[in-house]
Amino acid sequence: MSDTTAPPRQLHLNINVLHSGFVPSAWRLPDADPHAFIDVGHYVRVAQIAEAAKFDAVFLADNASIVEQIDFRPITALEPTVLLACVAAATTHIGVIGTASTSYNEPYNIARRFATLDHVSKGRAGWNVVTTADLGSARNFGRDAVPDHAGRYARAAEFTDVVKALWDSWEDDALIGDKVSGRFIDTDKVQPIAHHGTHFSVQGPLNLPRTPQGHPVLVQAGGSADGRDLAARHAEAVFSASQSLEESQAYGRELNARAAAYGRGPHAVKILAGLTTIIGATEADAIRRRNELIDMIPWSYNINRLAGILGVAPDRIKLDERLPDDIGLPNKGNGNHTFFNATLAQARLHGYTARQLVYALAGGGGHRVVVGTPEQIADDIEHWFKAGAADGFNLMPDALPSGLQDFSEGVVPILQKRGIFRREYEGTTLREHLGLARPAGRKGIAAAA
Amino acid sequence: MSDTTAPPRQLHLNINVLHSGFVPSAWRLPDADPHAFIDVGHYVRVAQIAEAAKFDAVFLADNASIVEQIDFRPITALEPTVLLACVAAATTHIGVIGTASTSYNEPYNIARRFATLDHVSKGRAGWNVVTTADLGSARNFGRDAVPDHAGRYARAAEFTDVVKALWDSWEDDALIGDKVSGRFIDTDKVQPIAHHGTHFSVQGPLNLPRTPQGHPVLVQAGGSADGRDLAARHAEAVFSASQSLEESQAYGRELNARAAAYGRGPHAVKILAGLTTIIGATEADAIRRRNELIDMIPWSYNINRLAGILGVAPDRIKLDERLPDDIGLPNKGNGNHTFFNATLAQARLHGYTARQLVYALAGGGGHRVVVGTPEQIADDIEHWFKAGAADGFNLMPDALPSGLQDFSEGVVPILQKRGIFRREYEGTTLREHLGLARPAGRKGIAAAA
């Protein structure tokens, strides 16, 4: 055995802390606390379990309005950057990725808040860049209608340009802090960005030194053409939603080709596929757990949710019939394309009735669901990973923390034994976990020019 | 001795964590770390010292641009809500008050972030409501000029109305979480706010349940007429800047009279006067410490800073002459009125030269500075407190953590011995520390109507 053998490629795992878990009824399990969605202790516990299992990062979604049927389930409620600061304070290695919208924020504020999160976590922050498409959010920010899809993404692209420029407005070595001479900061190394664009005019510089990672890691999740373009331009990791291995392979290839067209290196974007797991000691146990969870969701909830994703009136969904044939036109551009497509594809491919579709999606709207033993789940993950369908997974266990505990105790050791997942952290920053380079600062850019 | 004797009125103490301390050269002290201003560990250490001394709260200022001469001193850099989440995670009782501007934020985002801070701190959050008056900030948010003073305060007042309405958009008992029936939230108890005002249209509700304190504590610091009006309408505590006891008494009387005109109860607003302390074992030691600190500030810095506060060209400030006689017209409405007035009053009252003024203000711009032994400082505090010139103090030690350590070890025990400062926390929320009632929610408002 040669010690010059390259170590095998390693997969990446994020834990997506969807409050009580992915399945809408997770809060009703005997060991669940209905208050978990607003309990910082819940998020800290989940993060600590994930850190003990050597996950790359904690991931938090976000919304700017109530987008769920709260009579039956929890919502994303606590603001991610504040919550992740608490998570960072209670952990030492795991990354902290928070979602923030480019639609109803200002780039200066977002640059500053994620840079702060990177400073306080000592280099573990990531920003999941999204646009916001629901009418409820629009009406919380002075608008009567949702901005159109192309406009949202144009704003998002310019927004992200500005944020990155602000992060680079201080050179890495601008801080002198020389007590003898009294020089604190070398102001030649702190420069305005003087951005004057279509959507924003931002003079800069940021009022905060460059962060441990240079830039917090940029994450994106868009599946539409505009979303993929934004990801190709800016994202270092994407949270994707693909139902089939071939689709995910094609998605990754296409995205990295787009990135290359922006002058980025080969395989610049890590594909982290959304994955919901429902684990049992036997396959039958796992299916039983899934069915018990689904049976705790009111059917009225499921029908409304399906109708919402598919953009049809709820009374057109008949539980024991297939979906109406006339669904399938592109939706109006303000829903979630990825979830629309994935949900419809699942239904058509298998000829599911609406009821069967809900079981197959575990009450969700488009992410892939794997139900089985730890061995079966590890096999699935290894298969996708080795086939190049994903660089890793954004894990959404059925219920939290129980589903993560089962994954950490059951699946992670198998992946480690197979040599595709770390047994120890090798670095301390999120970039190091993900194998991403630290972006050169302005001086680096100038030197290279 | 009767055990029915009312306990004496207790004073309140906030620690204002101005990075390395109030004096611009504090970072140059031998025991100071120049990186402290971006080190979460520094803020946590200061908070833990203050909590051990039973302070009411940690207070963080904020800016949306670089407003200091960074070649000579640190700045407020880390975003307060993210930083305070870390402070809350490392403490159990002390309040966490952060500054956020109404000028360049949206009320929905601010309502959500401070509500999140209140949830994660279990009822210890406060929001210091400010407007932003510097051109640098305006240019970071797409504007070429600073909005006028009246416009800023009109926006701030409506902004605060909206935030409070959002905080009340969930009744306290809206969350059911009944696993048996599957009812999660009583949607009758979560209602839109449907605000359509001059500056904002916000539909609501907030996507977050009501917080432990009902509302995070509202703090304000404005000294102008518009600022006082905003404080009278909304503030539960003000961070004031008065150089004389009589001025502070008058300020408190006037503010509470204005508050009464808004239908608020007697003494609705706690006056927390800004206070900088420079402590020595003897008075001579304290003066020596002050002089050493001042002598480490470049005089060019001091002149520029004075000129900025007074709104004159730096070349009009002569170090060993009195300030020019023609200073004294009201400034143009975009500076800080309080600091302008206080600085000028100090200079005129004592006939100081510019150099003497810098020593008297300890390099600052308007807050009162007390230099002396722990006993002298305790005497000053007790005098102000018993004369009704303040309900407490927003403490800005010369240097941090050393100046706070000296205060905690030297001054606090004297105040405790004199019976005017707590020896133990009696409650767990910031409202309890400050003796503020928990605001009734919407149901309470409806029942009272």
UniProtKB/TrEMBL annotation, chains A, B:
Xref: Pfam families: Bac_luciferase (PF00296)
UniProt keyword annotations, A-Z: Flavoprotein, FMN, Monooxygenase, Oxidoreductase
Entry annotated with the keyword Methyltransferase: no
Keyword Cell membrane: no
Gene3D superfamilies recorded: Luciferase-like domain
InterPro entries, alphabetized: Diverse_substr_monoxygenases (IPR051260), Luciferase-like_dom (IPR011251), Luciferase-like_sf (IPR036661), NTA_MOA (IPR016215)
Luciferase-like domain segment(s): 38-389
Stated family: Belongs to the NtaA/SnaA/DszA monooxygenase family.
Protein name per the record: LLM class flavin-dependent oxidoreductase
